[in-house]
């Protein structure tokens, strides 16, 4: 069933757990995420990035929304990391439950303006807005210790930002990064605690790929109620496709068992599903 993102995240926060959110790029990856959540009987968030939006447009969004509607567990659909007001409004109109109005690369005042505008749009669609304060570096950014320190969320600014914008969720930068790094980045849990003390909305931890169960669950205990995972799931999906290609070579024989499209997709879906399930268990504090 299609769910309200804020309701899912707020319920998780009250229970001292988090909702896992996974980026999807196709019906097959959506299937892997939803099936894993259904098997564990846990809610989940399907996320669409800007690149996916530009590639798939309305058909991809509506297919994702329909998949959420038909799921046996609560599923929210979220537009991830978008700085374009028009795209945010369009995705909410197409049925997305929420959006991240990402002004983290802007000045504080410009970030506030974007988030306020997004909140107004969301109100008209009974949707939710997440915002980000502090800059989350990515693996392509050449992450350094100095860059991470300069990008961290300021607790006092966080309180001011939430009050000024009315956003319902706040993505924080506490040393986490997007994508893989050679070593898992050390998270500043003291900073996270100080941020949580300044704001009264659920916090989001982006870049959960590679952080490890212990770090993620410690962050959840300090107020994080939504964790974002992308790289690990995408890598598992693509690695399964690569392994299939190595096994059957550059020219599959469709007359032979195991070499058709559906065989390939079953393997990729199964591989992604394992990683999704692992993160859902971590977020939900479930026994493995």
UniProtKB/TrEMBL annotation:
NCBIfam families: cbbA. It comes from Reticulibacter mediterranei. Its cofactor is Zn(2+). Zn(2+) 2 binds at residues 102, 132. Dihydroxyacetone phosphate binds at residues 179, 207-209, 228-231. Gene3D superfamilies: Aldolase class I. Zn(2+) 1 binds at residues 81, 178, 206. It comes from the Bacteria. InterPro entries: Aldolase_TIM, Class_II_FBP_aldolase, FBA_II. This is Tagatose-bisphosphate aldolase. GO terms for biological process: carbohydrate metabolic process. It holds the Pfam family F_bP_aldolase. Keywords: Metal-binding, Zinc. Binds 2 Zn(2+) ions per subunit. One is catalytic and the other provides a structural contribution. One of its GO terms (molecular function) is aldehyde-lyase activity. The active site is at residue 80. Coiled coil: none annotated.
